[in-house]
Amino acid sequence: MSRANLASPPPPREMIVDKLFELFRNGGFDGVSISDIGNATGLGKSSLYHHFPGGKGDMAAAVLGKASDWFESEVVKALLEPGASREQRVDSMLSALDGLYCGGAKPCIFASMLLGGAEGRVNESVTAGFRAWHKSVARALAETGLSSAEATVRSTSAIVQIEGSLILSRALEDPSIFKRSLQSVRDLLLG
Amino acid sequence: MSRANLASPPPPREMIVDKLFELFRNGGFDGVSISDIGNATGLGKSSLYHHFPGGKGDMAAAVLGKASDWFESEVVKALLEPGASREQRVDSMLSALDGLYCGGAKPCIFASMLLGGAEGRVNESVTAGFRAWHKSVARALAETGLSSAEATVRSTSAIVQIEGSLILSRALEDPSIFKRSLQSVRDLLLG
DNA sequence: GTCTATAATAGGATAGAC
DNA sequence: GTCTATCCTATTATAGAC
Lengths: 191, 191
Prior knowledge:
Helix content of chain A: over 70%
Number of helices of chain A: 9
CATH class of the domain at 64-190 in chain A: Mainly Alpha
Order of helices and strands of chain A: HHHHHHHHH
Largest sheet of chain A: none
Number of strands of chain A: 0
Largest interface: A-B, 40 and 40 residues
CATH architecture of the domain at 64-190 in chain A: Orthogonal Bundle
Strand content of chain A: under 5%
Radius of gyration of chain A: 18 Å
CATH topology of the domain at 64-190 in chain A: Tetracycline Repressor, domain 2
Oligomer: homodimer
């Protein structure tokens, strides 16, 4: 409020992270080089190291952090919406996931990081991401009438189906596999 | 038959490929270096290039070839066993898969290659591997009483669950997720 | 078939000017 | 905050002796 140009354009770090996100989800950690990142962002190496002093590890961490934030704000929040019906919660999640994975055309960043090299440098974030997701699905089911045990089982099955269908959709180049799995997960969670 | 030492020890290429298999399934294509391979096999680079003149790409191709052969001899053959019951066929497959993935402790080489870099160098083999698997599961179900459409749907769901549970088991370091998915797949295919 | 040695290049990261 | 130039190491791959 004090100065007119205090609202000067903030660093486009968020846009850089978006590019990183797409690169890493497609190639995994070891499949993406700093040169690749430079080409994709239009930035030189020094600019990249200015934004991410820790280098490639920092970049991957930023991407996983963004993914976790996204899950928190788009999935967890919808699932735990107070007073919402189970149908509303589940449909919100599935709609968000459909967008994140572009209808089955794009991979899961957690899975790509898990399998794409990185020698365990990112495993904690990946584990935490899956755990948060799993926990909030189970809680949503428990809050809307299922027993805790049954909620946990169905939550596991839901994530298994999402992740598996992303793999198979990509391998067979058939996004309809993902689409049908979304429906199947819906039936599972609402049935 | 003609010479006594015709049966001299054949080149241990198969054992090399076994090591490569474990390396690539854990690190993906880009996560494994020639040095890593040298350490794991105890061979020098020149020996490796003697066995695989095309370099790392050849090594990955050999691994995917072995994986396809294994599926053909252990999974497809069991699934299409003439006269066998559906239960026999399915249990044979699940038992083989349980061994291949070490009860959920080890990843799928196809998935690792798919997500672990490699810039599309291996995608044809991966697609072919999944397609063969999917087709033979569907055929086994169709041969034992299901409609073709229903067989295809269940086959897709089975592979989705196997692959997804491998991802989640690894991410959460909980092989029981895989184990329970095997049971769930059994119910799906026999139900 | 395996080894030592050696290219040749790509990769990650830094220095310093602007 | 970005660029150019540079460094160092790892990496892929080859050559030639044994």
